[in-house]
From TrEMBL:
<protein>
    <submittedName>
        <fullName>NAD(P)/FAD-dependent oxidoreductase</fullName>
    </submittedName>
</protein>
<dbReference type="InterPro" id="IPR036188">
    <property type="entry name" value="FAD/NAD-bd_sf"/>
</dbReference>
<dbReference type="Pfam" id="PF13738">
    <property type="entry name" value="Pyr_redox_3"/>
</dbReference>
<dbReference type="InterPro" id="IPR051209">
    <property type="entry name" value="FAD-bind_Monooxygenase_sf"/>
</dbReference>
Amino acid sequence: MVHSAVIIGSGFGGIGMAIRLREAGIHDVVILEKADGLGGTWRDNTYPGAACDVPSHLYSYSFERKTDWTRRFPPQAEILEYLRHCAGKYGVLDRIRFGTEVTEARFDEERALWRISTTSGVLESRVLVSGCGQLNRPVLPDIEGRDSFTGTSFHSARWDHGADLRGKRVAVVGTGASAVQFVPEVAKEAAELRLFQRSAPYVIDKPDKPYRAWQQALLGNVPGLYELNRARIYALLESRAIGFFKYPKLLSMVESRFRKTLEDGVDDPALRRALVPDYPLGCKRILISNDYYPALARPHVDLVTDPIERITPAGVRTAEREYGVDVIVYGTGFQTSDFLAPMKIVGRDGRELNEAWRDGAEAHLGITVSGFPNLFLLYGPYTNLGHNSIIYMLESQFRYIVGCVEVLRRHGLDWIDVRPDVQDAFTREMRERMRSTVWETGCDSWYMTADGKVVNNWPGFTFAYRRATRRPDPGHFRARAAAR
């Protein structure tokens, strides 16, 4: 049978997209999930201390209120449970095929459908939606001797919960968003902890606190209060945007918070100097934590800034010395700019997406790719944020994609394909606007491709993106009418 829509991935993007399609009357929706459970990044990242850095009342679907979040910044397990609740409540749980990894998707132009090859067989669908996200494939660093280590080693997104860190000598490689959360937890158990820092992050205080029962009751029972609170959080976060994409100097107040957080957490002047980044604030992701700097100040924790030369069977070697360790944890991030890799996606005229994107990923509004009809991306190029909730961006994309599907149905079309000139114009606009952003002020970040292009982030307000994706413009697409 030919399905109406197939979605790849069951994180916030895939689950929300399936819900919105079903609400629009598209009930024959299938979600393909390579893992054995839903949740995407919130299923994969179970490291100690895992939590969101966006307030809970905004890091949730607008159509499914949750008034009883336990904390202002939700922990991983609670977010995952929320996603499971949404999938069950809206009837998409039984539409997920677990343990089914997509290896290839090929557009059959004659039949106007996608043939999707998976580890469990082949499916056919009129519409294909990628909900893979940008943070789903862990990166292990290319360090000489990495495979020679005889102790326990793992990436933070594949945390080995069977590894007992109590009393062990632990090395952590990387100082990104995950490390800032799990390092304080590891420091509580390890006999020795050595954190290998290539680049210091900006870390500011985290205004976190538990919600009390009376606050939950008010949010759940006073008409309009939940919506007002959500709007307040949105406006507060959105106000920071102009500092990222137009006037970086406006981030000076955030830099003051960083200085105070560092001074309050670290007394040692030498350690404090080593923790001051050498790039403008905002160029890389700004991190939040109340316990990261105090953890680094503990006597059994050592910050190592000398570059790693190699991993040995017994530990980690720099130019200065070798550090013997029992466990290595890699907090080294994800492959972020390939989007649909390692899947092979083939569009019209046999064109491969990897070839189309050899100079960097491009998609009109981060959603549609010229030459790949009826293919839609969630959290695609130019849609990541540095200041607000990605769920807001996803919901904008849900509406746009549903609008495209309704155009197909209403006008009796086999397929629509965004025009190359429309996509090129959008890409030129993004690259021009990106030049004035803090992300292009000289640092090396996961926002960039290997040749230095920032292709992940949206250089504007999120409400401007919502306006741009309000409805698809028929003039932006080529189309083929269905045979009568």
